[in-house]
Design goal:
The protein is of the alpha/beta class. It is built from five helices and nine strands, in the order βαβαββαβαβββαβ.
């Protein structure tokens, strides 16, 4: 695992917030950049120490990310791919937490992000929603399917698999 790693989150509700909190717990020196449409979760993530940087829109700040987690509704995740394509660095991997994979993989192929995408879906949740209910143990012992494209390098699949294990989930 790289010593200095930067994670980006587009959406920090229950799942995105929980993954971010888990990453902060297991990689205390990592950098976490968050975007959320509403400001309150961004402020909460800064105030509780989960995020290092919170931005009001998905912008060039995300260029320094090694991994970007798309944690918005499935149809919105697809929209953010086009924005991120213009921003990300050559070694960035984009992943998502959506339950449906067909649409996102089709969009990834259509806009040419196959070398940068590994789909994901932590099979965890709660009857509660929002960042205020996120916790660093939500994905613990949850199955976490990963769906890499055919063009993403195996080293990134291996690294994301290790990250998923480190936060306590079970990669499949």
């Amino acid at each position: 695992m790289r010593e200095h790693i930067t994670f980006g989150f587009v959406g920090i509700g229950l799942i995105g917030g929980s993954v971010a909190k888990a990453l902060r717990r297991v990689y205390p020196s990592c950098k976490i950049i968050v975007y959320n449409r509403s400001a309150e979760p961004r402020v909460m993530a800064i105030n509780d120490g989960t995020a290092n940087i919170a931005v009001p829109q998905v912008n060039e700040t995300f260029n320094e990310c090694d991994y970007i987690f798309l944690c918005t509704p499935v149809e919105k995740n697809v929209e953010y791919l086009s924005i991120l394509k213009k921003i990300i660095n050559d070694n960035c991997i984009i992943t998502d937490v959506g339950s449906v994979k067909t649409n996102i993989h089709q969009a990834v192929n259509a806009i040419g992000l196959e070398e940068h995408f590994i789909g994901g879906h932590p099979m965890a949740g709660s009857e509660k929603t929002g960042y205020e209910n996120a916790n660093d143990r939500l994905v613990e012992n949850a199955y976490y399917p990963l769906t890499p494209t055919n063009k993403v390098e195996q080293k990134y699949v291996d690294e994301l698999t290790k990250i998923v294990k480190m936060i306590g989930a079970i990669p499949i």
